Amino acid sequence: MKKKILIDCGEVILREYRIEDVQALYEITSQPEVYEFIPGAQATLEQRVDWMKNYEIPANETFKSSMPDLKDAGFWNLGIILKETGEFIGFCNTGIKDELPEPNREIGYAISKHCRNKGYSTLAAKGLIGFLFEKTALETLNAVALTSNASSNKVLQKCGFKLAGEIEIDGGQFFHYTIRKRDWA
Hints:
By secondary structure, the chain is an alpha+beta fold. It has one domain (6-184): 3-Layer(aba) Sandwich (Aminopeptidase). It is built from six helices and eight strands, in the order ββαααβββαβαββα. A hairpin with an 8-residue loop joins β4 (88-96) and β5. α1 (22-29) crosses α3 (45-65). It is globular. The two termini are 31 Å apart. 34% of the residues are buried. The mean pLDDT is 94.
């Protein structure tokens, strides 16, 4: 097992999921403000525990062991932690989005309704983008946001993503964005 990774993003830090994050993650993904924009995010507490133990935490270890090339790396799941209090206020992750053309690694994020409009999503997304471009061989990252999700589209634009077009995924209309390492630097 590799060392745990922390990404300092200013007012928030990104850190790998811990089993004790399940309740906070469950509460966040149960908020309509989150699950209306992230298909499949809503789950029971029991499902969350199962996913955390059997998929998300093991996936983090697989991701780290695949660095820097990221061959066969799936998802990397990180909590957004308010630095001042240590509170788990959201999540930020990266994974393969099969619906996108290759290279199809994307980032995603969500923040508690209680912590919105404070810039935390932008800080977290920028922190993850910077880490991926500085510490891995990735050259291009993707992101998708429902066309109706003005806040997420704004975050992606603030992070330097460029609109690549629109795409339909599971019946929803999404804006598809990309950012390249050379443009990030």
